[in-house]
Structure formats: C-alpha cells, structure tokens
Amino acid sequence: LAKTTQPISMDSYEGQEVNITCSHNNIATNDYITWYQQFPSQGPRFIIQGYKTKVTNEVASLFIPADRKSSTLSLPRVSLSDTAVYYCLVGGGFQKLVFGTGTRLLVSP
Amino acid sequence: DAGVIQSPRHEVTEMGQEVTLRCKPISGHNSLFWYRQTMMRGLELLIYFNNNVPIDDSGMPEDRFSAKMPNASFSTLKIQPSEPRDSAVYFCASSPGAVAGGSYEQYFGPGTRLTVT
After folding, report:
1. Chain A residue with minimal CA distance to B55?
2. What is the pLDDT, as a whole number, of residue A93?
3. How crowded is residue B102: how many other Cβ atoms within 10 Å of its Cβ?
4. Spans of chain B below 70 pLDDT
5. Do B98 and A94 touch (CB under 8 A)?
6. Hey, is A81 helix, strand or coil?
7. Chain A residues with CB inside 8 Å of B109's CB?
8. What is the model's pLDDT at position A1?
9. Residue B85, SS3?
10. CB atoms within 10 A of CB A85
11. Which residues of chain A lie closer than 8 angstroms to B50, CB-CB?
C-alpha cells in the first residue's frame, strides 16, 4: 500500500485559495489518488479523485504531476465552512483504504 | 437517496456486554466497509465486504469483533464482550465498487458513537 504524507495542519483566511500537497512516493501503476473531507462528528466525504494531470469539479481541483509521486488539492476561495480535516488516499480497486492523520485546515474570518 | 444508514447513533454500555451496530448501505452498492475512529488511532478500516462476502478482515482487532453481511442491504458489527478500549466512533461506508480502471468512491454513514464504561 502506498504511504501518504501530508501536512498536519494549515491555516487560511476566507476568500483565499488553499493548496494541500500530499506525497506518495511509492504509488503503484494502478493506484488512483482520492481526497476526502471530514467535518467534526461526521463521516468522511469524497471530494475528488484522479489518476494523472488535472481533475476539476465543482468543489476542488486536483493536480497530479507526470511522475505521480505527489498530488495537490486546491480549494478556491475557501470559506469558514471549509474548516475540516482533509485526507489524501492512494489505492484502487479493492485495496484497503488507509486514512492517515490528514490535514486539519482552519479557515478564519 | 437516503445515504448510508447506521443505527444506533449513540450507544452506551457496560464492560462485558454485547454490542451490535447496524448498517444499511446505499441501494445498488456492492461494497461495504466498517471503520473505527479514535483520537489516538485515527480512522482504521476494520473489514470490508464485496457482494456480501468478506474480502479483508485483517483490521478486526481481535476475536471479540465479528461482522456479517447476510444480504446486500444489511450488515452488522458485533463486539462481544465489549471493553472500555472499544469506545470509538464506528463508521459504515458503501461503494459502487471497482469500475474499469480500478477507481472507487466510498460513501460514509453518520457513524455510531460507542461508549463502554
């Protein structure tokens, strides 16, 4: 299983763009990169998933360089409600999902 | 769609008692996962099923824990006997399963907060 490394915490202000980078040096050829968001007292929620290059949806963008050894989750113009823990996961198919400690994002006014 | 349904939402029990947590996955999803979350250990995968068959139960902490999925719309996680260290939030998640290319997406339920005194 590919191990992921991401910052423990990040601080931002409302309206700013936030980029959270995740390292996954031993990612396998079949692995996808997935990001989840978790609010207090709730289960994690899927944000975005990608394999290579760039993926964008209504919530975020995911940038994956050619070597796929890292990925960056980009949240445009964050608001207070984006305060949460963000998890980067690597895997595919029926591989066991391993949630690391995640990145605790705090958005302030 | 109602999403993943878990019951009970909160459970308080005494050490030594049997605890049964229940989960109803999203209709049409063929994979089901049980997780446990604590401050100390974070979010841990306990077991997952595909088409009602357990695929990987290596995360089940010990023999006191057991999980079943008798049909596609119901699963249980049982702890017998319960211990204070089992106190945690237990999440159930379901997934449409692997699709071409091996991608997946899991939908989590609201969790069951278990307190064992």
Report:
1. A94
2. 60
3. 17
4. 1, 97-104
5. yes
6. helix
7. 43
8. 59
9. helix
10. 19
11. 94
